[in-house]
Amino acid sequence: MLEIIIFSILIATILNIFIKRFSIPTIIGYIATGTIIAYSFELHDAIHSKELKEIAEFGVVFLMFTIGLEFSVRNLMKMKKEVFLYGALQVIITVVFFASLAHLLFSIDLKSSIIIGSALALSSTAIVLKLLNENGDISKVYGRKVLGILLFQDIAVIPILLMITIFSVTDKSVSSLLLETLFNAAILLLGLFLTGKYLLEPFFHQVSKTKSNEIFVGSVLLVVMGASYLAHSFGFSYSLGAFIAGMMIAETHYKHQVEADLVPFRDLLLGVFFVTVGMQLDFGIIYQNISTILLVLPAVILIKIAIIFTLLKFATDSRIALKSAVSLFQLGEFGLVVFELSFAKNLIDPVLGQVLIVMVVISMILTPFVLKNISKIVDVFDYTTEESEQYSSLENEEKLTDHIVLIGYGRLGKNISKLLRKNNMKYVAIENDIESVKKARKQNRPVIFGNASQKSVLESVNIKKAHAVIISVGNSKKLHYICKSVNDLRENAKTIVKVNKYEEQESLKELNLSHIVVEMEKTANAMYEEAVKL
């Protein structure tokens, strides 16, 4: 087993280093790794291991948790039209169309057809949002439409997973099963809601007072896995509990720090999940059905684009509608989750499952290349004025640009923020003392709780687009870590750092920071100037 683990990590690392040169997502590297080790060690039967399945499923659990973190009620209400109108219509129409096609044209049984239609309606949240964030298109009008539809698709995953559970139960009537499901869901939601409203904030408050990273990470894992286990004990998927836990934490002060701490666990376990997907690929079946794959996949893509384009055409101009539709052409990672779960519960024929999984993987491989050239692709069909300079007004207000990032909200940080407000300058502060954060939030100050040495926390305040970064942290060791992270994200940009003594200034010189202010030197100069005046 140790040999297999080492070999898997080696292959995954080498493959992902190679494919990243072509902007192919690492998901594909993990799937390829699974296929290689399955054939190298003859591990096709290992996928049926209950332990491996549960470990792999927790990759999806952590993904659903981080998605839940983005689903605060306030954010959803700001995008209600994009999410609940366009997103809902896209999912419903696409599910009905593909399910009808599968049932009537290909004579697939109704339950399997509905599952297939549901999976084909979903796009890749992980890949599309990552690429749109990287190229800045997430702030454009079409980026906002895409984001809204993806958010609803992520919400739709929960009822789809519940539907698979209902379809797989054969010893109860549908009506009694629905009543039991609704009753259990009500108890689960009520229990988690009360926990989140009255216990979660005080619990994290006590944890953060310890100022121990390992205790904080452990407490977050406890909340995620505890909520997942609770949902599973009521007959739901682990993912549902994780999603609700994410939504609960999204309403607290700890959202950004929790997300930063959970991302490594999510990515690692998601890697395991996609490795298990790769282990299921049977090239014999793929070879026998290659003509079907090459005919059906383009048809699915074109139908999906046509549905989304038609929906958005009534709400915006044709170019934006087309760019949004083309951005969402692919089948997504949750499609793989749906097919894998359905396959495990014998709801989809194994041969059909292989064909569908390969279709998803191929569409995901194509996505980075399509999104990088989306303007050129759309130009072929709609050569109207480029809307690259058009930004959603609401998104533009929410996303800070040309602002000041203030790291450290102690006495010095508060005085700096006071000067920034006095001069009407936009700023956001990061502080890892929860008491200071709570006091600042009560005064409506833009202060978030987080560890500024973690790049994901810095990225959450859009540090790359900031006018300047001011770092005023007393702990010398933490200061160096923070400066290193800031420098990695915005090298040679304006960064002002306060240090206590000359030795600290020397240790930071290698980072090429624009301004280092030595507190001892400034204090000495100020005292000297006052003495001379006297």
Topology:
Blueprint lengths: L1 H19 L5 H15 L9 H20 L3 H6 L1 H26 L4 H11 L4 H11 L5 H28 L5 H36 L3 H21 L4 H13 L4 H25 L3 H6 L1 H24 L4 H10 L5 H12 L5 H23 L1 H8 L11 H6 L5 E4 L3 H12 L4 E5 L2 H9 L4 E3 L5 H6 L7 E4 L4 H14 L5 E5 L2 H7 L6 E4 H15 L1
Parallel strand pairs: 1-2, 1-4, 2-3, 4-5, 5-6
Helix pairs in contact: 1-2, 2-12, 3-11, 3-12, 5-6, 5-8, 5-14, 6-8, 6-16, 7-17, 8-15, 8-16, 9-10, 9-11, 10-11, 14-15, 14-17, 16-17
Report on the structure:
This protein is mainly alpha-helical. Helix content is about 70%, strand content about 5%. It has 25 helices and 6 strands. It has a 6-stranded parallel sheet with strand order 3-2-1-4-5-6, sandwiched between helices. The termini are far apart. The model is unreliable at about 385-400 (pLDDT under 50).
